[in-house]
Structures are given as C-alpha cells and as structure tokens.
Amino acid sequence: MKKELQNNPIGVFDSGVGGLTVVKELAKILPNENIIYFGDTARVPYGTKSKDAVIRFSNEIVGFLMDRKVKLILVACNTASAMALNEISKKVDVKTVGVIESGVFAAISASKRKKIGVIGTEATIKSGAYEKNIKRFDKNIKVINHACPLFVPLAEEGWINNQASKIIAVEYLKSIKNSGADTVILGCTHYPLLKKVIYEVLGRKIKLIDSASEVAKKVKNILEEENLINPSNKKGRKEFFVSDAPQKFKKLGEMFLNEKIVTVTKVNIEGKYV
Ligand code: DGL
User: Which residues are paired to 231 by β-bridges?
Assistant: First the structure.
C-alpha cells in the first residue's frame, strides 16, 4: 500500500498565486516529488474573509486534491492554515500540514531577546494563531502583531522594492521596529517577495522567518517518517489548477516560482465536494 502511495503527488493549495513561494522551496528540498497545486484565484484574497468562508473554500479544494490521490496536503496559505487546518485534517486520511507551526518553531529558536514580530493578513493576525502557538511553547515571549494587507497587492504588482513599497513598509513595521524585536515571522505567502524592503526598514540584523522554507523541511521529515518519499530519480512533475484567470496565474506564477509554467488548468470546484 505505502509503495503505491510513494508515487502519488503532494497536494498544495493557496488562495491564489502566493503559495508558489512554498512550492519553490518544496521543489528545492524534494526535487523528485510530483506536486499538484491549486490556487483559488476566483476567490482570492482569503485574508479579508470570514472563518466560515475560508473553511468552506478549503474543504472544496481538499476534496479536489483528494480526488487526485494526493499523499499529503500542504496548506501553503497562512490564512487558511490559521482558520481551516483543524477542520480539514479531521476530514481526510492523509497528513495535512500548515505553515504556522513551522514558522513559530523557527522563530522561537532564532529569537535571543524573546521578542517576536508577526506580520500577516488581517484574518491571520485577527485569528491570533501565531501568537497562541508561540505562547504555547513559551509564554514569556513578547509577540508584536501587525497586519500588512497592502503587501499582498504590492507583491502581485511586482512592486517589491520601490519607493511605494518602502513608504508602506515603514508605516506598517513601525511598532515592530520600536519594540526591539529581533525576529519577525513573514506570516503570509506573499511577504518573502518583499524581504529586501523589510530588511531595509528593520535593518540587516533582524531575523526574518520565511514559513515557506521551514514548512518544506517539515514536509520532507513527514514523508521520510511515513516512508512516503518518491523513490524516482526523475525531476518531479508540477501541475497547476486555478479557479479563474489561468493566464494571469501563469504570468505572475513564473515570478513567484522563478521558473517557466507550461500549463495552468481552470476548474470549477464551487459547491462541489461539500
Ligand atoms: N495566501 C494568503 C496568506 O498567506 C495571502 C493572500 C490572501 O489574502 O488570500 O495569508
């Protein structure tokens, strides 16, 4: 049974294109794995939606991925990880992994001053998921949260290091800078693209925790533990599905993934798999 599963793909999903930052890290560390990616481009952003809506959307995507016989589901979206991971993990018999815990773990190990900044979408920050997880490990750590909603459109526009992004970053990061935090969790798929400007504002000494690379390591560990690593020595196949605008996804996706995307397939999952 396990042997059959080893060749099956890893399912990754996000509200849109941002989760490709996670796919990029996953492919680096697990180059022979096949990956099926679903970007919910018809309903992005999740960061401004209610918990009920994010759970419903996530369940539909998980149904779609399970139909494609994925061996593990990686929730690349921070908002969906914060709001829907518990619900979806109850519904499926494969491992489900979100981005929150891995980021928290890395931040706790990195912070010497025990002061951690967390930035994310409004929904992620409002959920308190990062802060709760940090306090679960160590309640003496001071957490400074700040929602940075404009970072998402800036990254999608490719404005990752210009005057506009700098002005916005200075404003958003003020409280974290003044707090003396030595570590900041980039709690959103899009933020790794803005690393340069964040460093400029917070200074080179700040430790930026990129959940994408942390969670990729976690997936590798789980596949090893479960004996689910694909034994093939061929480069893994990546398949991309979206709920809208495949051409736009392809164009933006190449920037996020830093490689050519050949095909993107549009599928309608709304109201299905419920
Ligand atoms: N993928 C989302 C996240 O990581 C950002 C975009 C959105 O709001 O949907 O939180």
Answer: none
In ligand 1, the atom with minimum distance to the C-alpha of 46 is 9
- CA–CA dist 235, 27 (Å, integer): 9
**Helix (H) or strand (E) segment spanning residue 183:** strand 183-187
What was the pLDDT predicted at 90? 95
Q: What is the pTM of this model?
A: 0.94
Element of type H or E holding 52: helix 51-67
User: Ligand 1 within 6 A of 46 CB?
Assistant: yes
Question: Among 106, 105, 89, which Cα is nearest to 97's?
Answer: 89
Q: What mean pLDDT is predicted for residues 26-51?
A: 96
Q: How far is the CA of 182 from the centre of ligand 1 (A)?
A: 24
Alpha carbon of 97 to ligand 1 centroid (Å): 16
Which domains does the chain show, CATH number per domain? 2-98+213-266 (3.40.50.1860), 100-211 (3.40.50.1860)
Which residue of the set 54, 62, 147, 188 is catalytic? 188
Q: Please say if 77 is a catalytic residue.
A: yes
> Is residue 148 flagged as an active site residue?
no
- Kindly report which listed range (140-144, 197-201, 256-260) carries the lowest average pLDDT score: 256-260
pLDDT of residue 180: 96
Q: Does residue 115 register a pLDDT over 70?
A: yes
Tokens coding 3: 């042997």
Q: What tokens appear for 174 in the block?
A: 């003020």
